[in-house]
Design brief:
The complex is a heterodimer of chains A (287) and B (317).
Chain A: H1 2-14, H2 17-39, H3 46-64, H4 69-74, H5 77-82, H6 87-109, H7 111-117, H8 124-151, H9 155-178, H10 183-205, H11 208-228, H12 236-241, H13 251-254, H14 260-286
Chain B: E1 2-11, E2 14-24, E3 28-33, H1 40-47, E4 55-60, E5 63-64, H2 69-73, E6 76-79, H3 91-101, H4 106-119, H5 135-147, E7 153-157, H6 165-181, E8 183-187, H7 191-197, E9 200-205, E10 208-214, H8 215-219, E11 226-232, H9 236-245, E12 249-254, E13 261-266, H10 273-282, E14 287-293, H11 297-316
Parallel strand pairs in B: 3-8, 3-9, 6-7, 7-8
Antiparallel strand pairs in B: 1-2, 1-4, 4-5, 9-10, 11-13, 11-14, 12-13
The chains are: A mainly alpha (287), B alpha/beta (317).
Chain lengths: 287, 317
């Protein structure tokens, strides 16, 4: 794992990727800090962090798009397969290198609250907990980007796919506020989601029976609830969609709460996407 | 030692590799031949652990690839068809990464890198970015990667592609040298290269093993038809008549490029050369020379592949 980690980290800095990412992040942080803290005279650094989340929509796909797809394009994925390293170590090595890159701007950003504090009263605990949550958010998004990169050998497709997922996650709170809470809508929306899951299951295993079983497991309870306990479904799709609002989890930190549930959420989603990436890479070897 | 038992790779209904079994015990250079799409690269990818087989076992130095892939891979060095090199690294950085991934102890790593760079003649290029190297040098960096750490089994897929004639000779002698202390499997489309370097030859067709034999046996196989060249003086019709009427001669014709030269074919178990000598003597047609033309590997390869094609077509019908 260590050899892959070192190699990845080195690749970020022998190519422009690492420098471009750092420059982009620090420039954005600088602009937001100047605007919010110096132009509008606010002593709250957490607003800078909250606004920085938007920058991640572009920065993370750019950083992660090459992780696996470039290896496939350059045929160096074969080297990784033939070396005595298991897929888990390769994925973890690459993920840790991504975390290290994202850690650098987060660490540099830690100096900003101190600079601002010389001009006013800054709540350092809130500022640092926000930066910490921001770093965890970056890691979670990197795991999603790494997964999309493992799906294709085209870097652009990987980046667009990652951007699409992140944009959807970013917009979910706004969408959830405006969707109907009626049980009939909830039923239809869950049925569409179940159909999408079934499609993914079929693409993954190409077996009708398993797809049918998956459809039954999801749809039968839904039908029972819809016809027997209709009121249980009211407003449930909106609350269900909030599960995917990754960016929204940072809000409690900006409000001055050190939210353990959000940390557990970030760690869980990150681990889930690392597992997906390992599966995706393993599956490629079996093809 | 490499042991492959009932190895198969099936894509949908297509059998890329079909029940392939072989065993290589002693150190030597193995030529791996087969027409395009015969399953050579698939087999090599499976042996090296890059691709999972549909069924079958691969045992490298007593370690089962499916049970302990990391342990088994430590015993293999592999150069795929396209050298898997990082363009943004220098050869030195690249070999350091490969060495540490192969878990070569830090103390020995530099010594190992120096050795393989010297053997593949890339020392002068060690600090240049790989993307700025020529195709030949990239290939050599790929070979250096494969032999780094001195693995007992080395698999090379077309290692001399893109090299200049001098480099080809160097790499061939390196492969020969490696064959003394390692099992080297060499896949190449250049048959003269295989016959120059390999002691053993393995031919596969349609994913199946067709021949696994020593080069000597294969070229001088008792079952294959021999071709002989005869130079004799006398009337052409008379000489051809003697040739065609002698027991054992399967076919005979005049070599149009030379005046008194004739080509005839026979099976080794029914050698007609002695009878021919006396027949020509009786007919007063002096024989100037008569010798067996050694079959080239190309001829044998084509013959074996044709035979396997016929068997397959026959089987399907």
């Amino acid at each position: 794992m260590l050899s892959v980690y070192k190699k990845e980290l080195r690749l970020y800095f022998v190519t422009a990727t690492g420098y471009v990412f750092l420059a982009f992040m620090l420039l954005s942080a600088g602009i937001f800090t100047s605007l919010i803290n110096f132009v509008y005279y606010s002593a709250a650094f957490e607003y800078v962090v909250k606004d920085m989340c938007f920058v991640l929509l572009i920065a993370i796909p750019l950083l992660t798009m090459r992780v696996f797809s470039d290896e496939k394009k350059q045929k160096t994925d074969k080297l990784l397969s033939l070396l005595p390293i298991d897929v888990k170590s390769i994925v973890l090595g690459k993920f840790l290198a991504l975390c290290t890159i994202t850690l650098i701007p987060a660490v540099i950003m830690c100096a900003y609250p101190f600079i601002i504090s010389s001009y006013g009263v800054v709540n350092l605990k809130t500022a640092f907990s926000c930066i910490f949550a921001f770093f965890l958010l970056e890691c979670t998004l990197c795991s999603i980007g790494m997964f999309t990169s493992s799906l294709t050998e085209n870097q652009i497709i990987a980046a667009i796919l990652c951007f699409g997922i992140l944009l959807l996650c970013y917009m979910i709170p706004t969408i959830a506020e405006n969707i109907s809470s009626a049980s009939s809508f909830t039923f239809r929306a869950f049925t569409v989601c179940a159909a999408a899951v079934c499609a993914i299951v079929f693409i993954a295993c190409k077996k009708w029976l398993i797809t049918l079983i998956a459809a039954c497991i999801m749809e039968i309870p839904l039908l029972v609830i819809y016809f027997k306990y209709n009121e249980l479904l009211v407003g449930k799709f909106a609350s269900f969609s909030q599960w995917f609002a990754i960016f929204g989890k940072i809000d409690s930190f900006t409000n001055g709460v050190f939210d353990i549930t959000a940390i557990v959420y970030f760690v869980t989603v990150t681990l889930l996407f690392i597992c997906f990436t390992i599966q995706s890479e393993n599956r490629r070897r079996w093809r | 030692m490499i042991e492959v038992k009932n190895l198969s790779k099936i894509y949908g209904t297509f059998h890329a590799v079909d029940n392939l079994s072989f065993k290589i015990e002693r150190n030597c250079v193995f030529g791996f031949l087969g027409p395009n799409g015969a399953g050579k690269s698939t087999t090599m990818n499976m042996i090296t652990g890059c691709l999972a087989p549909t069924k079958g076992e691969i045992i490298i130095n007593g370690i089962d690839m499916s049970l302990k892939p990391e342990e088994a891979k430590k015993n293999i060095g592999y150069l795929p068809e396209i050298p898997p090199v990082y363009d943004d690294f220098t050869p030195l950085e690249y070999l350091r990464f490969v060495g540490s991934a192969k878990k070569i102890p830090k103390k020995e790593l530099q010594k190992n890198i120096d050795y393989v760079m010297e053997k593949t003649n890339i020392t002068v290029m060690k600090n240049r970015l790989i993307k700025n190297l020529s195709k030949g040098y990239r290939q050599r960096v790929g070979i250096a990667q494969a032999i780094l750490g001195n693995p007992p089994v080395i698999i090379l897929d077309e290692p001399t592609v893109g090299l200049d004639p001098e480099q080809i000779i160097e790499i061939r002698s390196l492969i020969k040298e490696l064959g003394k202390n390692h099992i080297v499997i060499l896949s190449s489309h250049i048959l003269s290269e295989i016959s120059a370097v390999c002691n053993n030859i393995m031919i596969i067709s349609h994913g199946r093993l067709v021949v696994l034999d020593t080069a000597e046996n294969l070229i001088g196989n008792e079952k294959t038809e021999k071709t002989a060249e005869l130079e004799a003086k006398g009337e052409r019709e008379k000489i051809l008549e003697i040739l065609k009427n002698t027991d054992g001669v399967t076919s005979a014709f005049w070599d149009k490029e030379k005046e008194n030269t004739y080509i005839f074919k026979f099976m080794p178990q029914n050698d007609p050369r002695e009878k021919l000598f006396y027949s020509f003597s009786r007919a007063q047609c002096p024989v100037i020379s008569m010798f067996i033309k050694k079959s080239s590997l190309e001829e044998i390869f084509l013959e074996i592949i044709q035979e396997s094609e016929n068997t397959k077509t026959g089987g399907e019908n």
